[in-house]
Amino acid sequence: MPPEIIALTRQVRALWHRFDWLPEWAVTGLVLLVFVGGGWVTHKIAFAILRRMVRKKDVFWRGVVERARIKLRVLIIIMGVGLGVTVSPMDPAPSADIRSVLLFLFILTLGWLASGVLDMWSVMHLKRYNIAVEDNLLARKHLTQTRILQRVAKVILFIVTVGLALMTIAGFRQWGVSLLASAGVVGIIAGLALQPILTNMVAGIQIALTQPIRLDDAVIVEKEWGNVEEITATYVVVKLWDWRRMVLPLSYFITTPFQNWTRENARLIGVAFFYVDYEAPIDKLRTAFEGIVKASKHWDGDVQVMQVTDITERVLQVRCLASARSAGVAFDLRCEIREKLMAFMRDECREALPRDRIEWPQGSDKGLIPPEPPVLA
Fold it and tell me: Cα–chain-centroid distance for residue 126?
């Protein structure tokens, strides 16, 4: 114990000896009340000083101080109670037990304080990026990295905090050592094959660093199209096109092939297929297609291509390509092209509609001429 604490203990004990006429519990309560009150006043003074110090700092430090207000108060009060128990006339055995519990709570509160600082840093980091804009690739990249790493860091912080706290209690010290060992790299590597939680944690770190997916990415998983809505420490929520939610473990995106339509940027090329007759005037259809695309509010002004991509025994396969600024807009553009080009063929270019042809061999048409009716006498 520090010499200052020993000296303070002797002075307080000499002081409370003057109150021998009071019961021991009353003296103990009075000492605890004084130290708790002193801790409360100390917190008020310290917090006022901290507020003044960060008043001209950036938003991060002001936010950290505001978020730490209650946590600092709990820490100072725990310290005050610990000092009060130490210098009070309480018996050594219960005094040691109480100090052990207070140390346990002190470590947990420190972890709580560190978690608040981590949350504040995440909020301030993400404020620099706006995911609501159309081209939000950079924002989604940082949002995905921050959210995943924040959750992983919180899990590790929780394990370390609880492990250190358990090590302060004699009966649970081995539990704390085991918990800290499981949080180490060796524990994670050894538990990959047996512990899905650790497997997904490692997968989350891989996703945060390499980013095969990001929040709001357009993906095709399990033959379903949707957008990545949420990435947690253990699973990913994909919002499907019909508003259903598909929940997949993080390890799925590391071990299973899937399609990411917005990996590099949000722009996409939409495709619409048509089947037309052999006699369809392709140049006329191409002109109509280009007019439809140029007049559309969904087109981004880049790609517009119409090509005959296949010839079957009945029809020509025509592929129309047009680019858009995002996956949702590309889907709307494809639908608009189909609707308007089909309406054009129906109203102004009916020869482009598919037709079936039948050719009879020569001489076989005689069998189709109905016989002359008999002449009645």
Answer: 12
CB 106 within 8 A of CB 98: no
Nearest CA-CA partner of 126 in 135, 138, 117, 115:
138
Measured CA to CA, the distance from residue 58 to residue 242 in angstroms comes to 43
Distance separating alpha carbons of residues 309 and 276, to the nearest angstrom: 12
Report phi then psi at 317, rounded to 5: -95, 120
Beta bridge partners of 237: 230, 247
Q: Report yes or no: 309 and 321 within 8 Å, Cβ to Cβ.
A: no
- Give the pLDDT of residue 247: 93
In whole angstroms, how large is the CA radius of gyration of the chain?
37
Give 226: exposed, middle or buried? Use CB within 10 Å, 0-12, 13-18, 19+. Answer: buried
pLDDT at site 315: 93
Q: Is 105 left (phi over 0), alpha (psi -120 to 50) or beta?
A: alpha
SS3 272: strand
User: When comparing pLDDT for 340 and 251, which is higher?
Assistant: 340
* Alpha helices (H) along 315-370: 327-348
Q: What is the DSSP letter of 223?
A: T
**Structure-block tokens of residue 94:** 């219960």
DSSP string computed for 54-80: TTTS-HHHHHHHHHTHHHHHHHHHHHH
CB-based burial, 234-258: b 16+ in 10 Å, e otherwise: bebebeeeeeeeeebbbbbbbeeee
SS3 317: strand
Query: pLDDT tens for residues 111-166?
Result: 888 887 787 777 777 777 766 666 666 677 777 777 777 777 888 888 788 878 87
DSSP assignment letter at 13: H
Length of the chain: 377
Q: How confident is the model at residue 6 (pLDDT cuts 50, 70, 90)?
A: low
Residue 127: what residue type?
A: K
The closest of 43, 54, 14, 48 to 31, measured between CA atoms, is 14
Return the pLDDT at 367. 53
pLDDT at 277: 94
Of the candidates 104, 116, 40, the one whose C-alpha atom is nearest the C-alpha of residue 73 is 40
Which residue from 324, 293, 294, 335 is spatially nearest to 135, judged by alpha carbons?
324
